[in-house]
Amino acid sequence: MSDATCAAGFAKALLEFAVSHGAPRSTLLTRADIDPVVFDDVDARLPFASYVALMRAAKAATRDDALSLHFGETVNIAEVSIVGLISRAADTMQEALTQLSRYVRLIVDVPQTGDARFEFRREKGALWFVDTRAAPNDFPELTESAFTHIITPPRVAGVPEWVREAHFTHAAPAYRAEYTRIFGAVRFEQAWNALRVDESIVTHRVGLLPRFVFGVLTSRAETLLSELESTKTARGEVERLLLASLHTGEANIGTVADKLGVTRQTLWRNLKAENVTFEQVLDDLRRRMALEYLANRKVSVHETAYLVGFSDPAAFSRAFKRWTGMSPSEARTPS
Fold first, then answer.
1. Which of 26, 138, 167, 296 is in the most buried spot, having the most CB atoms within 10 Å?
2. DSSP type of residue 5
3. Side-chain half-sphere of 293: how many Cα atoms within 13 Å?
């Protein structure tokens, strides 16, 4: 699970939900080892282990063992991820669920046993929507929130009840009554995590957003998927870790190697195999982030220097001149 990640926007939604129910923000961030700076970009990636730690800390702080069910039931995924918006722009419920399966990695990217994270399967004449996540009992809270995220928006929108039965691989928890309230017929310690759905789901119309929006959203989602794939490389892993620590002064190969659980020499060799050095990755990331900060005009030149890891604004200005041929002030001035 070391390569598993989740979107910063998804983790932020859980954080805000827990805080709204009385959990102390600083405590949750500390226990999950999350730097809140990462939330500036909702599409940034966090280690899935941080999300797991955040969920468990939130459950303890709110004293709500069923927090993951309540999180999925309360927070509409369309408000925190492009994936939810794509589902709202789909023609039918079947298409919405199919698109969810395609793009769910943009929310949570975890190992799966099937060709897709979610699959429609027909078993003994019944239609099932199956979650193929590997080792689901290691963290059943994700199954809980995933299924409640899926069934609640249609229910709120007035779609006739379409889930007939819910199966879970984990044992029944003490808050089983909440499962019954949300899902109706529930069975635990089953062979799969799956929802038995009504056949009408195949053709039930959705279309909550104009159809042209579907094309715009899926185009953006494909770009995000490509970027997610790039993080599977050594360079992508280094960039992901550097992004969260540029401003801390810990942007060095030793710190990054420690976080990846490898030696400096191993990280150096892995990057060399991709024809790049650590210094080149760091320099290019600083350049791209500086251009983004200055283009958005939300921070000053001095703040930008700090955010990309320069303690000396003059050194930042020299680096920026080398990168772009202009000063930071010139780049920040609108044309």
1. 167
2. E
3. 21
**Hey, what amino acid is at 44?**
A
Contact 287, 295 (CB under 8 A): no
pLDDT of 2 over the 60 cut: no
Question: What is the distance between the alpha carbons of residues 270 and 234, in angstroms, rounded to a whole number?
Answer: 6
Phi then psi for residue 115, to 5 deg, are -70, -25
DSSP state of 112: B
Q: Up-side HSE of residue 220: CA atoms within 13 Å toward CB?
A: 10
Long-range CB pairs of 178-186, under 8 A, 24+ apart, other chains included: 178/66, 178/69, 178/70, 179/69, 182/69, 182/73, 182/148, 182/151, 183/147, 183/151
Candidates 100, 128, 127; CA nearest to 116 is 100
Backbone angles phi, psi at 182, to 5 degrees: -85, -45
pLDDT at 333 over 80: no
> Could you tell me the two tokens for 187?
């069975």
Place of tokens 């282990």: 49
In whole angstroms, give the CA distance from residue 302 to residue 40. Answer: 18
